[in-house]
Amino acid sequence: MKINSRCVNYSLFLKEWKEAKRKLLPITIGIIIFSLFTILMMYALPSLVHDIPAELFPELTPTILSQTFFSNANNILSIIAVILCVDAIAGEREKNTLTLIKTAPIRDSFLITIKTIVRFLLVAIPSFISSLAVYFLIMLMSGRADFSNYLLASVFLLFTLFLYVSVGILISTFTKSQLSSGAISVLIVFSLTLISSLLNQGKTISYNFLQISVNVLSYSFSNIEIIVNILLILGFSILLLFLSVVIISSEREPTRK
Amino acid sequence: MKPLQTQELKVIGVKVINLKKKFNSFFALKGIDLTIDKPGLYGLIGPNGAGKTTLFKCITGLLTPTEGKVILNNTEVNRKLLFQKNVFGFIPEDVGLYGNLSARDFLHILAGLHGLDKAQRKKRVQEIVDFVGIKYSPNKIVRYLSTGQKRLLLIAGVLLHDPDILIFDESLNGLDPVVRSHVSNLMKELSKDKIVFYSSHILTDIWKLSDEVFVLNNGLLVEHDTPLNIIKKITKNVYYIESDEYETVFSYLEEFSSIEKIEIEGNKVLFQIKSKNAIDESKEILRKVIEKHSILSFGYYEPDLDQLFIKMVSSNED
Fold first, then answer.
1. Which of A3, A24, A103, A178 is the best residue to mutate to test the B interface, defined by the most B CB atoms within 10 Å of its own CB?
2. What span, in angstroms and rounded, lies between the C-alpha atoms of B275 and B257?
3. Which domains, from first to last, does chain B contain?
C-alpha cells in the first residue's frame, strides 16, 4: 500500500527536466546574445544617433554598464520567466497529459514544487551564464568592475526571477489554456514593472524588491535591508506557490479544459 | 504476466452508489448505482453524451461527484489517498502523451510516477512490453508513433503498476482491425484476474467480449446483464414477416389482440407476442397472414447490434 514517494518525485522531476532541457540551449544562446547586445549598444549609441552631441551621453563606467544590463535583464527575463511557466499546468491540461499525472500518486504540493524548480532552472541557468558573460565583456571594454557588487546583483536577479516563476506557475494553475495563461502573465508582468517603477523613488526604494538587482548597484543597502528584500521575495513566492497548490488541490474538475 | 509482487488477499471491486454529477445546471449523471465484484470484462455502452466518460472520471477521482460515492476495493474514492491511485489504471479517450520522450523513457517515467524503483522498473517495463506485444524500437519518439502503437504504449503504461481495476474509455476506437483484435485479446487476458471496465462504440466488440454489459443513457443506467440476456430481453417473442405488402400486413396484424408491439423495419413487419405460448401463436398468426397476403419470409427476429442498441436507448427515452 505504501508508495515510494522518492521514486515518484524523482520521476516527475526527470520527466519535467527531459521536456525542459530541449529549450535550455536556445534560451541560453538567446539570452546571452541579448545581454551582450545591451552592452555593445551602449558603446554604439553615440555613433548611431548623430543629432545628439556625444558629451550628453553618460560616461560608460562599469557601474553604468552593469545597471543597464540588470535593468534590461530584469524587464526582459521577468517576461521570459512567466512565459516559460505557461505550459506548467495549463499546457498539461491543454495537451490532455494532466490525466497521466492526476492518476499517479503524486502530491499536489510536490507537483507544483517540481514544476517550479525545473522552470526556475530553465531561466536561472541562462541568466547566470549571461550575467557572467556580460561581466567579462564589461571587464574587456572598461578594464575594471566590482565583482562582489556585480555578483550580489546577479544573485538578486535570480531571486526576482524565482518570484516571477511563482507568478507564472500560479497563473498556469488556474487557466485552461497556454494562450490565456501567457496573455494574463504578460499583463501581470507589465503591471508589476509599472508598480516597481513607481516604487523606485524616495523611501520605498530600499524595499522595492522587484528592482533590487538594479538598485543594489546604485545605492548602498544595509544588511537588514538586504535580508528584508530577500524575505519579501521568498515570502511572496511561497505565498503564490501555496495558492497554486490550494487551487489545484481544490479543483473539482482538474483535467477539464 | 506475473503480478508485480506477492499480493495480499484483497477484495477487488467497483461500487458506485447513487452517483450524480452536475455541470453547471446540467446533470450528466442522474443517480447511478452499479457493482462489479469479480474480475471480468465489463462493457459500458451508451450514445454520445450519455455520461460514460463522466462516470469513468468519477470512478477514477478525476471528477468529484455532486452526490453519491464510489468505492474501489473497499475504500471510498478520495483524491487525497495516494495509494488508491495504484489500484486502477485509466486510459481516457482523449489522453495525451509526452510526445518528445522515447517510448522507453515514457514507460520508465510512468513506472516511476507510480512508485516503482529503478531496479523494479527495468524488469517490469520489459515484462509489460513483452506482454503487450510492443514490437517497435523502444527508442522511437512517442509523437512519431502510429495511433495503434500509441494505444499499445498507453496500455503498457497503465499495466506497469499492476492495478486491479482497468478502465479503458473508447480504447478500441480508431484502431485498424488487426490492432483492435490484438487489444481485445489483451483485454480478455487481463480480465482473468482484473476488472476490465471499458466503453466502446464498436458494439460487436462489446457483445462479443464482455462478460456483462452496462447500458447508460441520458445519465441513467438503463440496463445491466450479460450480452445474451440483454438480447433475449429485447428480442423476446419478436417475430418478423417480410413482405412486399408490408403496409397492409402491418394493418392486418394490428387486429390481433395477442400482439403487443408492431413496427416496420424496411419491408419487414416486426411483432412481439405477449402470449406465453408464443411459438404456437406465431404459427397461427403466420397461417392467417398467408391466407390473405403474399409473404417473402418469416422467422424469429434477430436484430443487428446497432438496431439493438438503438432499441435499448429509444425505449428508455420513451
1. A103
2. 10
3. 14-225 (3.40.50.300), 232-317 (3.30.70)
